[in-house]
Amino acid sequence: MSSILLVIALTTCIFLVLILVEFFLGFKKIKNLSMQSILPASQLPSVSVILSVLNEENNIENVLTSLVNLDYPNLEVIAVNDRSTDKTPEILESLQKKYSRLRVLHIKELPQGWFGKNHALYFAAQEAKGDWLLFTDADVTMKSDTLYRTMSYALEHKVDHLTVHEQHYREQFWLKILLLGNYVSYSMVMKPWRIRYSWSKKSLGRGAFNLINKESYQKCGGHKTIAMECLDDLKLGELLKKNGCHQDIANGHDFVEFKWYNSLRDMINGLEKNGFAYYNYQVIPTLRDICFALIFFIWPVISAISMSGWVEWLNIINVGLTLVINAYVAKQFRLQKRYAIFYPIAIIILLYTVFNSMLRTYRNNGVIWRGTYYSLEVLKNK
After folding, report:
1. Domain's final residue, options 228, 261, 294
2. d(C-alpha 258, C-alpha 144), whole Å
3. What is the pLDDT of residue 1?
4. How far is CA 302 from CA 98, 298, 299, in A?
5. In a shared domain, residues 49 and 19
6. Do residues 16 and 70 share a domain?
7. Beta strands 161-165 and 210-213: pairing type?
8. How does pLDDT run across 237-259, given as a tens digit for each residue?
9. 155 and 299 in one domain?
10. For 342-367, what is each residue's pLDDT tens digit?
11. What are the percentages of helix, strand and coil residues in the chain, rounded to 5?
């Protein structure tokens, strides 16, 4: 038994060292938009900013004001009211009269075979006049020169699809801990610095900011091809990469901001539809990754306390390496490095979130998104 534990500890140590090296080299490859030079306005294409809006009466005015005031020469903003039941439609109509750049579209019924957000974004894309499309969310604000910099980056690097790391508003202590766990797992799984390479199968899309050449979007079928994908942003990025589009990501912490959930409870509830969806609603891959996380991140903590000899010392090193990894990732995403010491709690909460998503999906035999129920059978056979 001790031999097996020693092998596990040594394997974990090697794995963590490789992860730390790749993180250190990888994040350095992601360019900060604040360093991006801006091309002359005459060289920049037209852009249509598209967002789907559902019951956002409390913050939609601030969001749209931010978007219509982007300092960009040829811009339109399309806000799609996706079956809102609050005062959102009235607010949108009022803002449309105020801002000439804003177009408002209304959807009253959801066609069969669609997730609501996917349908709304696709519907707007068909109406868009811009040569490029920027898909964003209804809780995202941007600095005035964001499009100038991102469009300049895309043209300079000959990118068909550009996404960015956005800045999250974070207030609650427990939410910060869970976000750090999310940042670490995201970095390990997605490896965003790899998406620019054609040899890599890694792809990415982020709901807060997906800037896409319209011709590339239409060529791959757009959101219609992923009509029943819950993770619309990730699946759109995957679709574009598979169709030969050149992807890249930039550090946009100084330019794109949004508040991702108000509390830990909100985040856990909000991810109910996403956690299991990432695994295409398959139980074995879900449980596999849960076990993997327990072995590589939680077991070393237990072993460092309860074991002796080489197993103990190797796991002490493993705990130290994991602390360094978490602190480094926290720095990259502008979270205080001191939260790294809570990584075991972050991992446990994150695993609970995924497990909870799986249990609730099976318990309900499906998911509810934007007021519409989708059976598990339909989701698996999408």
Report:
1. 261
2. 15
3. 67
4. 60, 7, 5
5. no
6. no
7. antiparallel
8. 999 999 999 999 999 999 999 87
9. no
10. 999 999 999 999 999 999 999 999 98
11. 55, 15, 30
